[in-house]
Amino acid sequence: MSLTLRTISREEHLAYIRSLPSASHMQVPAWADVKSEWRAESLGWFDVSGRQVGAGLVLYRQLPKVKRYLAYLPEGPVINWFAPNLEEWLRPMLAHLKSQGAFSVKMGPPVVIRRWDAQAIKAGIQNPEVKRLRDVEATHLEPRAFEVADRLRRMGWQQGEDGGAGFGDVQPRYVFQIPLRDRSPEQVHKGFNQLWRRNIKKAEKAGVLVERARYEDLPVWQELYEVTAERDKFRPRPLSYFQQMWRVLNAETAAVGDEDRMRLYFARHEGEVVAAATMLIVGKHVWYSYGASANHKREVRPSNAMQWRMLQDAHALGADVYDMRGIGDCLEDTDHLFGLIQFKVGTGGEAAEYLGEWDFPLNKLLHKALDIYMSRR
User: Which CATH superfamily groups domain 113-142+173-354?
Assistant: First the structure.
């Protein structure tokens, strides 16, 4: 199979993404407008007949004082990763990015390598000898993913020593997903553990109401999100980031008559917003993207009620998967991310391990300098 690669228009890029069951929300053309501090380019792969067979959103970040760039394809490119001729897909991409002034390329193949169901994770948590998710026998292994990793290594792509465990990568290596395909909402609800079902009922009894919010409500979201950031000790994004995200992502889908790409949900108790979350939609893949909650009224369980409503809405949209995004891979209750996996595993979904992010140094010296700079931040 002989492939050609060229820069494509945003329209071509979006048309290709829309032709697929799903792709990462970080590989839609409008994501370039969300990350407006990066220069962006859409790439397309074409077969001998001129038919488009792949796409990639590249974000270029300039090095201070020199016209050299880190080229980043978050959760992409969107190509046939299991193709035996993977090199024929990636070699022209590297040549093109080098011609654009890239000194290093970072990409995140959207390839799942292992899955663990909720039962396997719970057993791992209860076993004192098990420290990490990877110590638990996987419920499902994807042999072809190991072949992809081997091919990448042979081509000269590099991965961090720890394989990007947990949140070491720019994007999480481990995520938690709830399969929805061929399941009714009742079956999904039945898959929740007893605590989740009890908490949903508790929220209902306490009068928690979950609603879809509007663009104008984003300042209310921001307030709650900043409370969460202070409590959980992370640096919050500014309100302008979420406003921009809403505008550009929803403008992209509105232009072609699709459902909103981004939604906002509020859980109210006695009129007060006590939990909030953003949702992203691309084809049949729905993500719970950002979450926030108040320091008080936790006993009325607004987060459980909100997730249940979002899951039902994802199901109504025809989604195959509801993605709760990142989890850490540590199963010890002393780890600061342990509460996250404990909360998510109660939904009866599954943990998935992706191949992680890979780097290709086009200029080894500059790539090394960037590594040193990033480790000191």
Answer: Gcn5-related N-acetyltransferase (GNAT) (3.40.630.30)
Average pLDDT over residues 67-88: 96
Pairing of strands 285-293, 321-326: parallel
Q: In the beta sheet, which residues pair with residue 352?
A: 115, 175
Per the listing, tokens 């850490």 go with 328
Give the burial string for 159-186 (b: 16+ CB within 10 Å, else e): beeebbbbebbebbbbbbbbbbeeeeee
* Single-letter amino acid, residue 3: L
Question: How many angstroms separate the CA atoms of 70 and 197, rounded?
Answer: 46
Q: Which residue has the tokens 């994501």?
A: 31
What is the token pair recorded at 194? 């007893």
Opening angle at CA 176, ends 254 and 287, nearest 5? 10
- Average pLDDT taken over every residue of the chain: 94
Q: Angle formed by the axes of helices 86-99 and 143-155, to 10°?
A: 40
pLDDT for the residue 161: 52
Continuous segment of H or E residues that includes residue 328? none
Dihedral sign computed on CA atoms, order 253, 254, 257, 262: positive
Report the candidate in 12, 155, 163 with the shortest Cα–Cα distance to residue 86.
155
Average pLDDT over residues 310-329: 97
- Domain spanning 4-108+357-376, CATH architecture: 3-Layer(aba) Sandwich (3.40)
Whole-angstrom distance, CA of residue 61 vs CA of residue 102 = 9
Token pair in block for residue 86: 């993977």
Residue 337, pLDDT above cutoff 70: yes
pLDDT at residue 374 greater than cutoff 90: no
Domain residue ranges in the chain = 4-108+357-376, 113-142+173-354
Token pair 């991965």: residue:
159
